[in-house]
Amino acid sequence: MKTRWEILVVDDEEVMRESLAAWLREDGYDVNTASSGRDAIEKARQKDYAIYFIDLKMPGGIDGIETMMEVRKVHPEASIIIITAYATVDTAITAMKEGAQEYIVKPCNPEEISLLVNRIIKIKNLQRENTILRKKLTKQYCFHDIISKNPKMLEIFQLIQEIASLRSTVLLQGESGTGKELIARAIHFSGDRAEQPFIGVSCAALAETLLESELFGHEKGSFTGAVTQKKGKFEMADGGTIFLDEIGDISPKLQMDLLRVLQERCFYRVGGSEEIKVDVRIIAATNVDLQQAVLDGKFRDDLFYRLNVINIRIPPLRDRREDIPVLARSFVERIAHELGKEVSDISEGSLKLLLDHNWPGNVRELENAVERAIVTCRGRALTEEDFTFLTPRVEANRGWSVPANVTLQELEKEVIAATIQRTHGNIKEAAAALGIDRSTLYERIKKFEIPR
Amino acid sequence: MTFLYLAPQGAVDDEVLTIIETCLWANFGYEIRQLGSSAEPEYAFDLRRRQYSSTLILRQLVVKCPPDAARILAVTEKDLFIPMLSFIFGQAQLNGTVAIISLARLRQEFYGLPSNRMLLLARVVKEALHEMGHTFGLIHCPERTCPMSLSTNIHQVDTKGSEFCAGCRALLRENIGATYEQAANIMRAED
Fold first, then answer.
1. Chain B partners of A30 at a C-beta cutoff of 8 Å?
2. Please, which residues have CB within 8 angstroms of residue A185's CB and are 6 or more apart in sequence?
């Protein structure tokens, strides 16, 4: 579809702005007019225009240069043409320095202005085409809801397709925020079980007894509060897939129960005596090194080998930086739509900033950063200014020195405790601030026995 | 019944008015009438630029518009301008009622060349169709031979033809309807 480009003509002189608007309308543009700088800024806030013609000299306290500067605050990429009847070198330099695309002296030759408008529109069309192509490219890198062009991730996509219809247990290993659940969903929804349930359980979020009841269900009266019989997640997932997140955190007793399910495909409800058989595919995930946990005696080796039939290691975002631009653009498109904001692009400068960041919280942290930037963004494109919250963290880290004789675990505990205190115990907010998911935070709270 | 009015602004060559009448009648299907001769548009004269403001003339035409006018095309020998541009060949209200063309820069004499009557008449036809086309909702056409293509210099006027391209014809048919069909029939009968 051909875009109908919109132009804003800003001039206090009615004949001037209406005649230029009429001339541009004859060329097929939608033209709006503003009679003052204030009027123009208000109109620019409502929508972005392909070109702004702004008269340099306007009464009312805001001249053309100031109007341009305000418009550029809202739309940093705006194409602005400053018009003047009295050309001076100084004003021309100021106009260009403040970001005017062109500076023209009226009256000008119709050919000159026609060429100028055509040139700007040609660039706008190319930019639009570029956006469309980028979207197509993103789709090309998209596998279910996972976006990547990283060779290791592409191998994972290939593997997912190969194993999707098998019943073999899968162990996903990767740092927090790398998208383990998305991979688990991709496996489930690419295979024969796609029509059957996909049930996710965060093993770190619940205490041992609750988790046991959650996984296997319970009989009425089996414990205080068990007022009715309840089906567990394994029964709910019958025929489909159960996703056990943070599997490294389960207790030795649950490890034993799980081993039985894996070996015999059957279990008992808590307090029950009836053996329940299920056909469930298990996908487990962890962000800890399970092999090391086995060596440390914290995780059963027989369970580890049962789980580790197909092992998928998801690389952290810092090892697949080429995905940052394509991920960021995809987040902009989705989140802006969800938030009802008219943000549709991200500047090259901000992409560079994102590429330089280390992303300890991986893709989730990137997603959170883009969301935060969109919330505060006032233009159509995210700029470096929208990501200033990323910079202080880097600078603060540079100026910060590690206290002596403190272990990494102690530091982690301190940081988590301080964040929880700052968010007044709001786990969702604390997890977002720390760049980790809620289940990881619950796991750390439990591990470090942090009071909430 | 409505008419398409021709409004000479001051003295305008009769032959020029006749050829405009013919081409408008044949292309838009309206019966043509002439507004009584009016004075030179001195009220629109800009002393500094030594040109005439087309916007002011169009405003005046809107005020004087007869109730039975479907459209009015003003014709003047004066050199026209809008504040932003150094000159214009003509101006129209897009989807509006009034339009104007200037003969000043359509004459070879303006460029220091010997007078060429046939060339002048050919240019007049193209510009009259162009400005009237705007009043019927046509915008500039990318087809360089179509009279609706944008002309910012006299060479571009000469490159254009005097027949609307298929795309503009289709749009005209849509915008004018029955009257256009009548015009098309007239043209077929003449063929």
1. none
2. A144, A145, A198, A243
